[in-house]
Design brief:
This protein has 685 residues and is mostly helical. 67% of the residues lie in helices and 2% in strands.
Amino acid sequence: MVRRDGEFTIAARTSRLSDAALAVLRAASVLGWTWSPLALVSAVAEVGERTRAVKELRAAELIDLRRWDEPLHVRPSHALIRAAVYQQTQLRALHLRAAPLVTSRSMALQHRRAAATQYDDGLADELEAYAHELYGRRSFRRAADHLRWAAALMADPAVHERRWLESLYNVVLNYDFATVRAELDAIRTAGDAIWRALVLGRYAIQERRYRDAVAELEPITAESITSGPIAGDSAQVDRARLRYRAEVLLAWARACLGHPIDLIADGIDRAEMVRPDDTDDGAIRGIELVVAGQVSIRRFGISAVLAQLSGLPAAVAVPLTATGALAFRGSLRATMGLTRAASDDLTEATRRIEGSTDFGAGSFHAQLGFVQWLSGDWGRAALTSRKALDLAGTVVHQLTAAIAPLVDSGAGRFAEADDLIESARELLTESPWEPACLQFVNTLLVRAPAGGSAAEQATALAELRGTPFEITDISRAGPALLLTYIPALIWAKRLDEAHAAIGRLTGAEPAADWAPAVASWFRGLIHEARGEGPQALAPLTTAVAMDLDLPLYRAHVLADHARLARLLGQHREAGDSLRQAESIYDRLGAAPFVERIREILSEPAPSVQALAGGVVLTDREHDVLTLLLSGMSYAQIARELFITQSTVGYHLGNIYGKAGVKSRHELSDMARENPRLFGITVARA
């Protein structure tokens, strides 16, 4: 007897079985390595007395029983046993017996396919029809399998090719790029031009190669569209559905490349013209919704588009077929800063997405991470952002790339944040989809105050000029972006623009609960930038007293209030705000801001070191400026004051901002020419 690792080979073990036991084992193997009712196995095996056969197979350790089920279920005890027995079995007769007995339509079709020995147009049509049902349920891998089987059973070469290409289209939707790459040469030489373009165009889009997608899809959308309803001929209707897919995909590729909005809108309009009334293409409809939504945002504004989605019920009650609309509503609510509503929508949408193929390629997870970050749950935001990157695969979605650096930026992990920022900059420069570019600006403006000096903050917007990230029309920026964009306008001394943007923030509909407090905060910063200290403190004091359920920005308000209160001699109020700000920053894990607050708390209460109308400096800023003018380097100043060099840079940056200069040399020249402006004494040579 042949042995392997102390066990009989499967062939040797099965050779000792009775005919009834062998028939049961073969039937179980044909039914697959899954649990099958014993009654079904017996019927396929055509064995009446099964108890003795089952005992024999159990003794030989060739099958397993699931005893707690009624009726009793069995399966081969190992996948290798199932495979070996299956290869030894005369299959056709058993598959033919199994086909009418199994309850699953898919399994019945698979058994009939396995039993087929020649071309079978009828079975091929059934496989194709079932594949289309699977496509509608977003089960793209299984749809691809059924289409490939349908192609193999078809004698007509044109129909064979069409079904094969359609199977590959589903393979692309399942992100199985290796399979597509293995067949690229055959795809490129296929005769069916429209299916060839759809496969290659969608493949290029999934890999974020939008220029390649445009090159593939433009030729098949060049044909003029006749007005009027589509004729009832099935071939014409099928062609219209394919044209509809091509138009939507082309519009999406153009949107991602930043093409003119009118060109994108024309594509969406053409898609609607050719879409047959009975078309419910979920894998395309979600993209159409997003692109059409972006067109509408450009034309009518975010609030108007959000109002169009007001008919959707609460997140959990939205039908599965409207998950794309739910995700889009969540995205818009995130843009509007409606954190609770956005979280509800995006949490439910991503839960559904995780149960099927992710049509957002991780982008909706990224936006949920952004909402969690805004809401102060940075731990969950980090986890959700990592999941977004995992779902993206090898090619990251633009929105995911734009949002990914946020947590690291706020936490002071600047090396990690900057690597992600540069990757996002490169991706978005190549494919400047506007919503992602706006989100990236927000990320940059979070990074600036976390790790940059006041002078660097002052130039943050200037550095965006001439790039895809320059904001030329603030009406397209939602309130969530204005949280960082308005301070950047103030840093840049563009105070009239900042004031106008506050009006947009408070006038947004639906309004975020936090908008009044934030608007009051920004008005105080504008007064401060104009040198109006007492006028600046009043709106900041108001902002501190108001609800602001955005922890990072609540801490920023408290820190700014403390800074002005200290300068104006309100030391108790300043201390209270500083301690609250420190607690919030510490809870968030916002290390750079914690360090600054603790540095301030360690200093003695400041006195005003300037004459009326001069530049108001804190004691520590006064010390840093005095030592700088004495000729000390950053390192020497740090040693002298027992602080870090980065803290020296931070204080100097603040002085640059107050003095309206951009460099150490400009500051030195100004201070030497007019030391009384800074409340200092400079030794004359």
